[in-house]
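WARN  no MSA supplied for this record, continuing single-sequence
INFO  ligand: DAU
INFO  echoing inputs
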Amino acid sequence: MKKILITGGAGFIGSHVVRLFVEKYPDYHIYNLDVLTYAGNLENLKDIESKSNYSFIKADITDADKMNALFNEYQFDGVIHLAAESHVDRSISDPLAFIKTNILGTVNLLNAARATWNEQMQDKLFYHISTDEVYGSLGETGLFTETTAYDPRSPYSSSKASSDHLVRAYHHTYGMPVVISNCSNNYGPNQFPEKLIPLSINNIKNKKPIPIYGKGENIRDWLYVLDHARAIDMIYHQGKNGETYNIGGINEWTNIDLIHKLCEVMDQKLGREKGESAKLITFVKDRAGHDMRYAIDATKLTQELNWEPSLQFEEGIEKTVDWYLANEEWLENIISGDYENYYKKQYNEL
Ligand code: NAD
Ligand code: DAU
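INFO  complex generated
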């Protein structure tokens, strides 16, 4: 039985990847390693927690000794590394947490893998999950390709860029078998309501202001989370050693257009009058250093591994809204407690 370590599996994307692997590969044992920060939530995996090919390990990737001990004990065959501090706004108020988890944590995993795999690396794989934000910010035209020069501009994207470089360094220096993928903005069920879409769904539902940074002209390329999980599955199994793959939705929206679309869907689902939710849109102070536009060229992944997004945005956003409306308890459990403090601090003008 292959032993696969998935880090950050209690988070948004990680939980979808864990479920996909546990269900699709009964001959793999999936170890979900997560320290359960504010963003980690085992409720995300309730439906698969008793499967015999699944185990949860509560551990912190910043703890080098613990990582070495775990690799020694379990002798993992492969790693899919998603654990990270992931929210740009939090990286602006607390960069150090991002340096510790995203950089140091990644190096701890690389060191533990290297020490355990030693000279027998040929059938092993360290798959590092990264972001399109490492490439910086685009103007009105152009797309990020795998050869676009790195130009990270926030503490979050700089920490992710740094971890990408270290993963490549372990490949070149020590012969570690690695793949990296850089994905655009994900949306879908189980996303923590600090990110634009779930935060807005929650606020619309509760008739609270929807905070739009600046003029809402910034552009993101949105991908349904299950399409990202499918891409990760393909890259893990068919990606070439040492290669990088960009993953994107071919689905660019300005924030303001996206929120108008979301308001339309929410009005319909909540039986509200057309235009009612859009009245909640409130322009607030811009994010510091706010990247203007991200957009991915996923040609390599499409041509080499035959991947493409399966869902149109209209369908994906409806599914997402349906999930949040059907899972009120999941949302309520999050928005009480610490979330309130975060929200007050981040959106104090509202
Ligand atoms: P998330 O914040 O929802 O989840 C992160 C998970 O990592 C949480 O479960 C958290 O508890 C865990 N974690 C954090 N610090 C840890 C530590 N020190 N030790 C162990 N576990 C720890 O993040 P997400 O949105 O699911 O993103 C997952 C990965 O995908 C990240 O590496 C992120 O950079 C990358 N990514 C995200 C997006 C996106 O749109 N969300 C897009 C591209 C890439
Ligand atoms: O591009 C991939 C990245 O996408 C991932 O690497 C990150 O982990 C993920 O958080 C996401 O980063 P963004 O900063 O693009 O996502 P966020 O949902 O925070 O913001 C999306 C856009 O919406 C961005 O232009 C900022 C804006 N925004 C965000 C929030 C939270 C607002 O206008 N108002 C808000 O309240």
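The CA atoms of residues 19 and 118 lie 30 Å apart.
INFO  checksum written, moving to next record
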